[in-house]
């Protein structure tokens, strides 16, 4: 039996990881540390056996030390982060505080409890990061690998790059047993509806415009969150200390293509289930119109990276990682989850 501390475990990816780990490692116990800001939702992990939610800030080093000591934590899985690029442009301070200072707080506590006190306890500090630290790719550039130089272009990605460097430094300087994973764009259940996929899905249901930045041809690699959790599990269990692993979905698509898939899948769902028209009468699909009639092009955001792509050769070769879903399959599952969990997302919608 293992004891895990999952930071940000009431957020989107963290909560999915908690569900995944409970299913695959039912004898382990999980302590979730989450500040419960706008994107942290206790409902995401409510009722899970062997999981305890502690409301608190990762910048509170004393609290982290207390949890590590009292609960005999052997593994930290660090998801807690400010992650929305648009918010980082208008308010970068919170991103530096949480992503850089917060990560350093966790590292200090881990070093003190696991190394400085001389317990010799086997441990693992796993840090979850993003492909955005690598910057932007041209249309013909090779995909990001673990050796791609960092070139962050937003306050968000710069703060995540800083946290990545701190994690690496604590391994090389102090000997802390760390791993890092850099993932591509996640989607799936429990995603806060300011991100592209849940935002556009729900806008389709409520007949609201689908605002597309620029020409809509910014390219991302799309990763279903459960595939991501599977990749993280493999890194935690079998990743080499001090190493970084890229985890991608193998679904490199322009935003416009993603939006078209969202619209088409929503339209098919309404055609297959007439009750949806009664539930969501404002949806174009309820009125005999295509959902893509809501598409609206808006001014591109500042510093908008043109293309991301992940080369996951290292994770495949060393860990046996492979994504299990195409985007079409993953989004169909995601739509089904949102349609079946209206009570979860309705309170999060803006008026």
From TrEMBL:
GO molecular-function term, one example from the UniProt record: dTDP-glucose 4,6-dehydratase activity
Catalytic activity: dTDP-alpha-D-glucose = dTDP-4-dehydro-6-deoxy-alpha-D-glucose + H2O
GO biological process, one term: nucleotide-sugar metabolic process
Keywords per UniProt: Lyase, NAD
Cofactor dependence: NAD(+)
UniProt EC number: 4.2.1.46
Pfam families: GDP_Man_Dehyd
Residues annotated as domain NAD(P)-binding: 5-333
Family membership noted in the UniProt record: Belongs to the NAD(P)-dependent epimerase/dehydratase family. dTDP-glucose dehydratase subfamily.
PANTHER family reported in the protein's UniProt record: DTDP-D-GLUCOSE 4,6-DEHYDRATASE-RELATED (PTHR43000)
Protein name per Swiss-Prot or TrEMBL: dTDP-glucose 4,6-dehydratase
Gene behind the chain: rfbB
